[in-house]
Amino acid sequence: MLVFSAHAADFCSRAGGCLALYARRGAAVHVVDLTYGERGESEDYWARPGERALEEAKQIRAAEAREAAAILGATIEFLDWGDYPLLVDGERLEALARLIRSRKPDIVLTHWKHDPFNVDHEVTAAAVLRAIGMAAVPGFAPESERIPWPQVYAFEPTVPRDDATGFVPDHYVDIGEVFEIKLRALAALRSQTKLVRFYTQWAEYRGFQAAQSARRPVRYAEAFERYTATVSDRLPETF
Ligand SMILES: [Zn+2]
Predict the structure, then answer these.
(1) What spacing in Å lies between the alpha carbon of 209 and ligand 1's midpoint?
(2) Which residues constitute the domain of residue 89?
(3) Is the residue at 232 inside a domain?
(4) Distance between Cα 174 and ligand 1 center (Å)
(5) Contact 188, 64 (CB under 8 A)
(6) For residue 13, how far is its CA from the centre of ligand 1 (angstroms)?
(7) pTM for this one?
(8) Cβ atoms of 196 and 186 closer than 8 Å
């Protein structure tokens, strides 16, 4: 599983429970943070008294994100492409496509394509989809092997602005058995202390929704929307 996160914490806040479940079952889960979220998603760092600097913000966010990833059972790397605004040019697209080819993911998780309140998320989604397309065609970097399209899923856009993003979940992951792990990982992201409250509330809300389809209680869930269709010899089932 390969997870593309625009900022330091997105992978954890939006899909940390899913990552922990996959890691627990033995999957190799790797996170790519395109930026440290040093400008736009490090509010508690900038609120601290005393002198503040971008470089220090990046170092602190890297340490926090590494800690959170380790708690979830994932590995992580940082591209340091700069946030607010995150810009992805042709060179960066090629780097993403090469990274995807070298990792050969079965599943890719990334942002939802519409997130007007956080355009870095939109930019990441568009870049990841485009880079997968590049990695899948034979003429790109012919010295390396092309890959088939992985299953690609979007995690939550900016919470709680799903009223403005068109995000309609078509799959819920029940994260009840790993919710304490997700909370510990969120707590490690100390430059964004609001995450614990936001994503506890949101997991309860998504659990409430999921329970309507699961026909059993679901206390905490994460929501996803497919970019790629699933294929098998039967329809997807709820269990
Ligand atoms: Zn973000």
Answers:
(1) 24
(2) 2-226
(3) no
(4) 23
(5) yes
(6) 9
(7) 0.97
(8) yes
Alpha-carbon distances, residue 161 vs 8, 35, 89, 112 (angstroms): 20, 22, 28, 12
Cα-to-centroid distance, 238 and ligand 1 (Å): 30
In a domain, 96, yes or no: yes
Cα-to-centroid distance, 121 and ligand 1 (Å)? 6
Domain annotation covers residue 214: yes
Query: Which tens digits make up the pLDDT trace of 134-192?
Result: 999 999 999 999 999 999 999 999 998 888 999 999 999 999 999 999 999 999 999 99
How many whole angstroms from 23 Cα to the centroid of ligand 1?
22
pLDDT in tens, 99-144: 999 999 999 999 999 999 999 999 999 999 999 999 999 999 999 9
Interval between CA 7 and ligand 1 midpoint (Å): 5
CATH number at residue 135: 3.40.50.10320
Whether 239 is covered by a domain: the verdict is no
Gap from CA of 36 to ligand 1 centroid (Å): 9
For residue 230, how many C-alpha atoms fall within 13 Å in the half-sphere facing its CB?
13
Instruction: Give how many domains the chain has, as a whole number.
Output: 1
How many whole angstroms from 224 Cα to the centroid of ligand 1? 16
Distance CA 68, CA 74 (A): 9
